[in-house]
Design a protein that fits this description.
With 286 residues, this protein is an alpha/beta fold. It has helices spanning 4-17, 28-32, 34-40, 53-66, 70-73, 142-145, 155-169, 185-198, 215-223, 238-243, 250-262, 280-285, and strands at 24-25, 46-48, 79-82, 87-89, 116-117, 120-127, 130-131, 151-152, 173-176, 203-208, 226-234, 267-271. 39% of the residues lie in helices and 17% in strands. Strands 5-6-9-10-11-12 form a six-stranded mixed β-sheet. A four-stranded mixed β-sheet has the order 1-2-3-4, with helices on one face. Helix 7 (155-169) packs parallel to helix 8. The radius of gyration is 22 Å and the shape is globular. It starts with a helix and ends with a helix.
Length: 286
C-alpha cells in the first residue's frame, strides 16, 4: 500500500515509452482497492484480484491473441479492468487447493547472486510452503487475500525446491515467508526429518504463533538449522489481543519466548503500536 504511488509513476513512464504496452498489477492493495487503483491511474490497464498464477496465465493468452479488447477480457475470471463507461470485475477465482500443481519459482530468470542479507556476501532465497490463514485477525490481509482455508505443499515438494536452491544456486540460507509455517506440527517434523535424510545443511528462518510451539518442536527446529523464529505478539494488553482476534494470551507469549531462551535459540516479535482504542499507557506496556 505505501508503494502504490511509485507503481503509478512507473506505469506512467512505461506508457510514455509505448502506450500499447499492457500494464497489469496485483497483490493485496490492488485486490482490495481495484476500483480506486483503476480510477487513480489511467496507465494501469488491468488488476489481477487474489492469487495470480492461473489468472495471469489465462490473461496472457487472451492479451496475446486479442489485446485489451474488453469482450475477450471478460472471459478471464479474477480480473478488474476499465471499460468505456465503467469498471468491470469478472468475479473471484477459487483458491488453488493443490499447491503442488504449481511449477517451482523461475529462479533461473533472476540474478540469484544479488539476493543477499543487508549487502553482506550471504546469499538468501525465499520459499513459500503454504497459503491461507484460519485466524482472521482484523489487522491482517492474509486471511482475506489468501482465504481462511489453510493449504500447504507436500513435504517432498518443498524439500525438492530447497534441494534445488542449495545445489544449483549454492544458497544455504532459506527464509520461509509463510505467515505461519508451524500450523501442522507433523508437517514440520516430517520436513526436518527430510532435511536430515537428504543431507541438506541449511540455515532457515520462519514465522510461527506462540500457541503453536512446544519444547520438543522448537528444540528440533533450532538443532536442525532454524536460526530465528518470528512470533506475532502484537500487544501486551489482553483486551487488545482479544479485540483484534489474535486468539492468544499474554501467558502464551511469555511461555513461547522463555522456551526459545531455554533451548538457546533466537526469536523476534512483531508488534502493533497505536491501535485506535489504545491509550499511551497501553502502548508503554507493549
Amino acid at each position: 500500500t505505501p508503494t502504490i504511488y511509485n507503481v503509478y509513476e512507473i506505469a506512467k513512464y512505461i506508457k510514455a515509452i509505448d502506450r500499447w504496452i499492457p500494464i497489469v498489477i496485483g497483490g493485496p492493495h490492488a485486490t482490495f482497492m481495484y476500483r480506486e487503483v483503476l480510477n487513480e491511474s489511467v496507465n494501469v490497464d488491468i488488476v489481477v484480484v487474489g492469487e495470480g498464477e492461473y489468472t495471469f496465465l489465462e490473461l496472457l493468452n487472451v492479451v496475446e491473441k486479442h489485446g485489451l479488447n474488453p469482450n475477450f477480457l471478460e472471459s478471464v475470471k479474477g480480473i478488474a479492468f476499465r471499460g468505456s463507461s465503467k469498471i468491470y470485475f469478472t468475479g473471484y477465482r477459487r483458491p488453488i487447493i493443490n499447491l503442488d500443481s504449481l511449477p517451482p519459482p523461475a529462479r533461473h530468470l533472476l540474478p540469484m547472486d544479488k539476493y543477499t542479507v543487508f549487502d553482506k556476501p550471504i546469499r538468501v532465497a525465499h520459499v513459500i510452503a503454504s497459503r491461507g490463514c484460519p485466524y482472521g485477525c482484523i489487522y491482517c490481509s492474509t486471511s482475506y487475500f489468501m482465504g481462511r482455508f489453510y493449504r500447504i505443499r507436500s513435504v517432498n515438494n518443498v524439500l525438492d525446491e530447497v534441494e534445488d536452491i542449495v545445489y544449483r544456486y549454492k544458497v544455504r540460507n532459506i527464509a520461509f515467508v509463510d505467515d505461519e509455517l508451524t500450523i501442522i506440527r507433523k508437517w514440520v517434523i516430517d520436513f526436518l526429518n527430510g532435511l536430515k535424510e537428504r543431507g541438506l545443511d541449511i540455515c532457515f528462518t520462519c514465522g510461527s504463533r506462540v500457541d503453536h510451539v512446544d519444547r520438543e518442536l522448537i528444540s528440533r527446529m533450532y538443532s536442525q538449522g532454524c536460526s530465528i523464529i518470528y512470533f506475532g505478539v502484537e500487544s501486551a494488553n489482553q483486551k487488545t489481543l482479544d479485540r483484534i482476534g489474535k486468539k492468544i494470551t499474554i501467558q502464551q507469549i511469555v511461555n513461547a519466548f522463555k522456551l526459545v531462551k531455554e533451548v538457546k535459540g533466537e526469536s523476534a516479535g512483531s508488534f502493533i503500536l497505536g491501535l485506535p482504542w489504545e491509550t499511551i499507557e497501553d502502548m508503554r506496556r507493549t
